[in-house]
Amino acid sequence: MSVPCVAVERERGETVRERLADADALDGDHEIAVDGDTIYIPVTDPDAAPADLAATIVERDAAERDRPRTPASILGYEPSLERLGDIVIVDEDDDERAREIAEAVMASDVPCETVLNRASPIEGELRVRRWDVLAGNGTETVHREYGHEFLLDVAEVYFSPRLATERHRVIEQVGSDETVVDMFAGVGPYAVPMAARGADVVACDLNEHAIEYLRENAERNGVADRVTAIAGDVREIAADHAGSADRLVMNLPHSADEFLDAAVRLAGDDCVVHYYDIQHEDDPFGPGTRAIRAAAGDAYDVTVETEHVVRSYAPHEYNVCLDVRLTRA
Predict the structure, then answer these.
(1) Closest CA to 6 of 62, 64, 54, 47
(2) H/E run at residue 271
(3) Single pTM value for the model
(4) Most buried among 29, 93, 138, 249, by the most CB within 10 A?
(5) CB of 226 within 8 A of CB of 199?
(6) How far is CA 2 from CA 8, 10, 59, 64, in A?
């Protein structure tokens, strides 16, 4: 097919391509071609190209670019989708629209075995939700994150792929000689990579299904010898591990403050606490800081090392993390 192309010397190709893209004149539906010392860059409209390139525009046959077929190209609009392993998650109140999206996902080039729609908010003490299976079957998948694999069932455990960057931020701080207690460990997205860095990790969760998956994930990632997985309330095991932790992960943002007495009991002489909270934008860090200081009392000096906004949670509310060092007084 003959299309207008900017023809310039090969060494100028990338610079010219960027200029055409900035001018919204780059034709992404056709392939860029090279012939000898000349590069031919297809443009959508010769009049849209920068004026100094007008004399370089020629007509030339160009192959159509092989583009992946997306759900948006099938539907004619961009649906809201979330990927978790080979599961695609939609969040639609309209059942007919949800099924339309699911059909488009399955017909597209998106790697996918199952499409789910959220059928309830996160519920109960174990923080799980109900799902409608729109396509495929089953709710178990393998999620890959920063070189690690996590087997999980979204109907049985809580897991958010949106927190991958935040988890990586914390995991990067872990030293190989540390003892870590992950107080609300889930399927191990903190515990497993921390153990992979050489730490010894005690990982606790009230959800027995999550602990089963955590043990499987520790084996899957070759760190089972450095992960102790415990099903139950972390407050009940604090006495057994008192004073042992060089680092504590408290990723239970709605109610982590209820576990601060246990955290102080678990803390060693010098311990970093990653405390997650959800607070109003007017004072996102103050309530957590005050709660930690109150729990530490005279036993520890408290230093807030990082105040970090993880993401917006709701209108005027933030999910935040406080990285706090407890040093025994």
Answers:
(1) 54
(2) strand 267-280
(3) 0.79
(4) 249
(5) yes
(6) 18, 21, 6, 11
